[in-house]
Design brief:
heterodimer; A: mainly alpha; MetI-like fold; 2 domains; disordered N terminus; disordered C terminus; B: alpha+beta; Rossmann fold; OB fold (Dihydrolipoamide Acetyltransferase, E2P); 21 strands; elongated; binds adenosine-5'-triphosphate; binds magnesium ion; ATP hydrolysis activity (chain B); EC 7.6.2.9 (chain B)
Amino acid sequence: MSGLVASGRSRRYTRLLPTGALLAVLAVLVLLPIGMLVYASVTDAVPRPGAVTGALTFSHFSELLSGANASAAANTLILGLAGTALSMAIGGFLAWAAARTDVPGKAMVQLSGIIPLFVSSLVGAVAWSTLASPGQGYLNIVFRAIGVPIELNIYTLPGIAFVFGLYYAPYSFMLIYGALSLMNPELEEAAKVYGASGRRTARHVTFPLVKPAIAASAVLTFGLIVENFPVPTLLGTPGGIDTLPSFIYRLMNAAPPQSNLAAAIGVGLTVIVLLILVVQRRMLAKRRYTTVSGKGFRPRVIELGRWRWAVFALCASYITLAVILPLAALLQMSMRSQPFISGVGDFFDVSVFGFQQFTAVLNDSTFQDAFRNSMIVGLLVMLAGGVLHSTMAFIVHRTRLPGRKLVEYIAMAPLAMPAVVLSLGFLWAWFLLPVPLYGTLLILVLAYVVRFMPQGYSSVSTSLQQIHPDLEDSAYTSGAGPVRSATTITFPLIRASVVSSALMLLILSMRELSAAVFLFTSQTRVLSIVIFDYMDGGVFARAAAASILYSLVLGAIALLARRYLGVTAAPSRGA
Amino acid sequence: MHVNVDNVSVQYGDNVAVRGLSLEIASGEMVVLLGPSGCGKTSTMRSIVGLETPSSGTITIGDRVMFDKAKHIDVPANRRNVGMVFQSYAIWPHMTVAQNVGFPLRMRKVPKAESARRVADALELVGLADFGSRGASLLSGGQMQRVALARALVMRPDVLLFDEPLSNLDAKLREQLRDEIRDVQQRAGLTAVYVTHDQGEALALADRVAVMRDGVIVQLDTPERLYEAPRNSFVADFLGMSNIFHGRAAAPAPDGTQSISLDDRRPDVIAKAAAPLSGSVSLCVRPERLRLHRRRPDVAHPNVWSGTVTSLGFFGTHTRYRVRAAGMDLDVVTFAPGADLRRGDQVHVAVEPCDVEVLPEVGTVAAETEPA
Ligand SMILES: Nc1ncnc2c1ncn2[C@@H]1O[C@H](COP(=O)(O)OP(=O)(O)OP(=O)(O)O)[C@@H](O)[C@H]1O
Ligand SMILES: [Mg+2]
């Protein structure tokens, strides 16, 4: 067992100290916002600075399934299901192609399964409203010109589901690709040897073995889509389509704000996500087998023959729809000094091209401040999150301190909280606390640290669990104290994973919009908020230019982080 | 069923894993492929079962041509009726034990009742009669190995292949399962190929052993012949023989003896071989052929070296000594109890010239190929 175990009985009280302090911090950061949310959902008064008042009432919950709420709930469900189905189809197909076929440009196919992850769904929504709004959408202009009698309208349920499908496909891709490429190929070869044809091998062996990954990615994707805020807000508003997160936002921005109802919906949404998580846990617990082999075998590759290029074309069209076309549209939109387009020829009319929008955005002090704020918040989250999440993981996995189980539960709790709901809870929690954090960047930092706690905590945990305690124990028996064992053995071994999880925090923070929506003020806007505001205010060209700059920043960070993250270096398995 | 592998080569890109290998296996015979890692054992076997496509050659099982490069015949694995026990066992974790074992029958559309009976028989045979309804992901290594064996037996294969089936198990279980495999194979009269790089396993299991190196068979013989007369120093070395030294042999004298000068100026060793070699050779002296003497033997003896006991171990039936003599580290085994030597004792080591084996050095690959 680990080094810290050996603390003597006399040190009983000092042993309570580390977890006690940690739990106190977590109570404020995680439990208080949840408490405030629940509280607001069952009272009739709005929480305001320094006071918790109001009489108990359950009337908000009875409103949950009536009128606009009901249709928002129905839309959430429909979009969740349709978006999940589409993203799984895309992700699953790409995973199969990259892992199991001789598709040309395999490395590129593999990459295309991941890259859209770095285009935030916010940018995706901005771009697709440029491409497929009715009338002036670029694709509609092209369709009219070539005589295709189709009018795309992204501001509809199918349109929104399509955007979800595009930008959530990478999650299914990664999980299914992992399962397919790590599967011991002897399992399939055995089926063949024992008489199964290719198709029967797929049906009786391959599919059942990747089913857990498929199910897990379905649940994960559904959860992510259901809580997404920017896409339904930007694309749903023109067509009057609300989902629960966008509806919460509207209730809060109404005059007067209907905070209690928003809180009740927030609680309802949290319960839904919680249920999904429970289902997922169950599934994972029930069906988990290791199919990974020890020897470095190469999975069997299906020779596609004359379908090679067809499969390639499908993969290429995904990356076109998810990345290339959207970026091209944003570029077109942001470069034009003359927004009106009468025909396809105008796309290529260089005389109207210019960098005015970019200069305008770059000179806009709002954008400059937001850039600075985003960087500050990102770096602080990286630091604070890195320290907090690693400490939590260390206490849970490497000590026997009392209360560590509780730490683990709290670490995973934010998973159940949709970002918008978390934002709301944070708003009220810091109203209550006697620390004037609202209106500063720090409240954003804390909200993000909480929001990304499950990811940060589990990525450090995973690597801690891979280090055998014997390694520390042998340092311990060689005469190093518990602290020396940790600093000389454990930390060096997990350093890489702590760094990579911190970098992941930086990227996630730069991308985040939803958790900030109720927490920013005019002084503390971040990049995502500014783009959202440009869109909201109808300055599309500026939103497009800002989106491009934003994507460049995200891309640059991702590129820098690539070395450490190893996401794009997905395992290519050779001899 | 009789198996004929003729001039088969397997190539991965530019890397040639198997070079024109030929191997005949009689019906009911167990041939063990033995060789160091990467020598092409698995590739050979995968060609027989149909999971790898050789770049040349023919493979015949019974009188069915399974593979013929020239005639473009390549029967797919699922139609060859060759069973294979994989190194990882390849037990499907999402099925029960009975479903795993019954899979080959299900694929062959064997009626339910008959299939159930045969599955039960196969499980009985491997000692897992009560395990049929168990989930396969919960089995121990030894149990998985048995399930894999049952699955291979149930379809009554024409040939049964084993790819290092015991390498993931602990020593004791290995021996037990090894004997069970041999027993089942002999009782069922199965033609089998068994791959391993453990020489003990090879010698215990095989009717004949094929020692492989770099994609070719260096020697194909019964275990006894192999042990008695290794073809060259590689085979001797690989079979775990100790006391192998490299040297140069002088031309033999009229009485058949020849002196072999070892490298780095150790005394010459006198050998008397039936078929003397000259030039660069390896010599090999079996540990049990060396004699230890406290005092220098008085007879005029060509090979006597004085040295020191550096370590020793008692093994019940015999005692094993390590002696440093004349710049050589020699392994010596004595069966006589009470020699009463200790570490650091001075001894004299002697060996008869006719007990010094002279083997060809391992040379180029082409020179070692088993003549057809
Ligand atoms: N699919 C493949 N692609 C490329 N090279 C391969 C492939 N399979 C085997 N090789 C190479 O062919 C050679 C022979 O491999 P093989 O697996 O037959 O050896 P082996 O004797 O079974 O070794 P081991 O004892 O390690 O299992 C090795 O050099 C190996 O690296
Ligand atoms: Mg092998």
